[in-house]
Specification:
261 residues; 10% strand; elongated; 11 helices; Rossmann fold; 2 domains; alpha/beta; 5-stranded parallel sheet
């Protein structure tokens, strides 16, 4: 007798319909290996826990809104050997999330800042942390849109409370009022409460130049830099253009050169 038709509605009622996928294979395994009922039940429960965790991870990655799937394993440390690999491996443990502390990543365009930030974000998501990845432009655009629709406080608090906020390309465009106030308020709200990763093409000494109000900028950066981990990515760009191919050999041009001689 096949118990599946009878089990299906009961498992759905208990919100355990995911067990239906693993049940046939586990049932065969139990018969072939003569498993005890408790061992068979334990395997099914393990399958359900793994399925739910994978579903939650997929949801966290979708909410994070990463540009692409970037991992630390894909990061080419040999390309720019000056990178502090030991520090990055330490950050990969997730300790900065529990402190909590900021991670500031600076370097020229194309040196892997966004890749590294997203890779650390991927690790945080796998560790069960909620993550948001946004460029400075996206962040300010979202807050401006929320202000226009009367949902600013709700949007602001969502960004303030997320376990890890990644702000990419900070300072790429100068801030204007009230953008500088929004950035200040957000960093202040997260200060010593939540971890933040910020990437920028600017040297650390130039970050204050992004703020039209220097006093406000100094107050913001003072909080951001306090106990922060600093990563400098310097060297060649991963986006260096490929060399142009040699022009094709032209018999006509050679003939003309011979005629001139």
């Amino acid at each position: 007798m096949n118990p599946m038709p009878e089990l299906a509605p009961m498992l759905k009622q208990l919100r355990l319909s995911g067990l239906l996928e693993a049940l046939p294979a586990r049932n065969r395994q139990a018969i072939e290996e003569h498993l005890a009922y408790t061992d068979f039940l334990a395997l099914l429960i393990q399958d359900e826990i793994a399925r739910r965790e994978q579903k939650r991870l997929s949801q966290r990655l979708r909410r994070a809104n990463f540009r692409s799937h970037k991992t630390l394993e894909q990061f080419d440390f040999a390309f720019n050997p000056g990178i502090n690999r030991a520090l990055i491996q330490e950050l990969a443990t997730g300790q900065f999330l529990t402190e909590p502390a900021s991670v500031l990543i600076a370097g020229p365009s194309g040196t892997g800042k966004s890749h590294l930030a997203q890779a650390l974000g991927q690790i945080a998501a796998c560790q069960g942390q909620d993550v948001r990845f946004m460029t400075q432009t996206q962040l300010l655009g979202a807050l401006n849109e929320a202000r226009a629709t009367g949902t600013f406080q709700r949007r602001f608090q969502a960004l303030a409370r997320v376990a890890l906020l990644i702000i990419d390309d900070f300072g790429l465009k100068p801030l204007r009022s009230p953008q500088d106030e929004d950035v200040h308020d957000l960093i202040s709200e997260r200060y010593e409460q939540r971890a933040t990763i910020v990437t920028s093409n600017l040297d650390f000494s130039e970050w204050g130049d992004a703020f039209p109000n220097r006093l406000l900028g100094a107050a913001t950066l003072d909080r951001l830099r306090h106990n922060a981990y600093r990563v400098v990515l310097d060297g060649a760009s991963y986006r260096s253009p490929k060399p142009l191919p040699e022009p094709p050999h032209s018999p006509l041009a050679n003939s003309a050169k011979t005629a001139e001689q």
